[in-house]
Amino acid sequence: MLYRALRVVVRPTALAIYRPDVIGTENVPAEGGVILASNHLSFADSLVIPLTAPRQVSFLAKDDYWTGTGVRGVVSRNFFTAIGSIPVDRDDPRAAQTSLDLALEHLRGGGAFGIYPEGTRSRDGQLYRGRTGVAWLALTAGCPVVPVALTGTDKLQPVGSRLPKVVKFRVEFGTPIDFTGRFDDVPAGRARREATDEIMAAIRAMSGQQLAGRYNERTPEMPA
């Protein structure tokens, strides 16, 4: 019910205000498990993709958003529930695997799941090397991956900004990548690496970003 309300009221309003360039929505399968793998420039990305995608897309979110008190806590809990976010305890020593397990369950249930293979936001605009969790999900769930390229969302909500600015941004949904049967005879580790690199290459082809050539490491003061 909350998601429908957001879809009917918030989405048209946000699109009317920001007028983003949205390309390739027809590439997102209308049903069934699918991964939307995107570059990551801003905290707002996890709102931009669900607002512009043609179906509900769920992202992982820290469970703190569900545990707040008072009016702010209620608003936060209802909002993140409405957009389909999946709560995860990031202080859990097994948080990384738990996150993948929750995502896998969502995909096997026929949901669309959004993920940033870079792991965290790029603060210099470069595209960092993808971590192989996205390939593990695709190969384990047997579902396609739609590469997504975001442009300009770093200006939409710059680092340190609490509220989004009214700026132009672009979202491009690329051609789905299907790995079915392609890595049956390839060692698991190599299969995940090659599949991840293919996904990142597709993102770069749309975003035009410079390659950083290394992983993007999160610092203590750098939230996802």
Structure description:
The protein is of the alpha/beta class and 224 residues long. The protein has one domain (1-215): Glycerol-3-phosphate (1)-acyltransferase. The chain has helices at residues 2-18, 45-52, 70-82, 95-108, 133-141, 153-156, 188-207; strands at 21-23, 34-38, 57-58, 60-62, 86-88, 112-115, 145-151, 170-173. Strand 4, helix 3 (70-82) and strand 5 (86-88) form a beta-alpha-beta unit. The protein is globular, with a radius of gyration of 17 Å. The model is unreliable at 220-224 (pLDDT under 50). Pfam families: Acyltransferase. It comes from Ornithinimicrobium ciconiae. This is 1-acyl-sn-glycerol-3-phosphate acyltransferase. Keywords: Acyltransferase, Transferase.
Q: Could you give a short description of this structure?
A:
With 224 residues, the protein is α/β, with parallel strands linked by helices. The chain has helices spanning 2-18, 45-52, 70-82, 95-108, 133-141, 153-156, 188-207, and strands at residues 21-23, 34-38, 57-58, 60-62, 86-88, 112-115, 145-151, 170-173. It starts with a helix and ends in a 17-residue tail after the last helix.
